[in-house]
Design goal:
The chain contains 8 helices and no strands. Helix 3 packs across helix 7 and helix 6 packs antiparallel against helix 7. The longest helix is centred in the N-terminal third of the chain and has 34 residues. The chain is elongated.
Length: about 200
């Protein structure tokens, strides 16, 4: 009778359960048009990340107003830095844009690295570059947010719908520069798929 005990084997990368998006990578369209498929996946991930971003935006927008954060010293200090000449409502909109944008891009970073681009570049470097890019986009959203809100506010829309529409437009504008930087700078893939298959063989 054999005394050899069954030792646990290391998990194989192929044994890791695939996500719904990963399973679609085997589709004929994904294999025939890999770059176009990456854009499609990026848009899907962006839509998923937009859900918590919009939720945080509305929570901050109405939460700050309900709490009357002007009485908080930290809010007054930050307002003097970010929007010293703006009214209370505009300052709240700026904060809501900045905080919600940070949440949305944090979610997008994780999903895009794992599911969209399967990046294997250095995580620390990718995170650093991503933070720089997001800071620039957050600043852009903070500056352009009130302008877009005023522009959309002139349309015959309910106030709550106009706020959501303005946030959506700002996200679309940021996405124009977000994809190419994310694809070719932040989430780089060092090894080509064919090379990985040859090494695994």
């Amino acid at each position: 009778m054999s005394n050899v005990t069954n030792q646990p084997q290391a998990a194989n990368a192929n044994d890791i359960p695939k996500t719904a998006i990963d399973k679609l990578d085997d589709h004929a369209f994904a294999k025939k048009h890999p770059e176009l498929w990456k854009i499609v996946k990026w848009m899907i991930v962006g839509f998923i990340a937009n859900v918590p971003e919009l939720a945080v935006f509305m929570l901050c927008l109405y939460g700050f107003q309900a709490l009357d954060v002007t009485n908080m010293s930290i809010f007054g200090f930050m307002q003097n830095i970010v929007a010293p000449n703006e009214t209370f409502h505009i300052a709240v909109v700026i904060y809501a844009y900045m905080i919600s944008t940070a949440v949305g891009y944090a979610v997008a970073f994780i999903l895009n690295r794992k599911a969209t681009f399967h990046a294997d570049a250095n995580l620390a470097l990718s995170t650093f570059l991503y933070v720089l890019m997001v800071c620039a986009i957050i600043y852009f959203n903070g500056v352009s947010g009130p302008f877009i809100s005023n522009l959309v506010g002139g349309l015959p829309l309910p106030v709550s719908l106009a706020e959501v529409a303005s946030k959506f437009l700002s996200m679309m504008a940021a996405g124009v520069v977000f994809y190419p930087i994310t694809r070719f700078v932040v989430h780089r893939k060092k090894k080509a798929p064919k090379l990985e298959e040859e090494e695994a063989a």
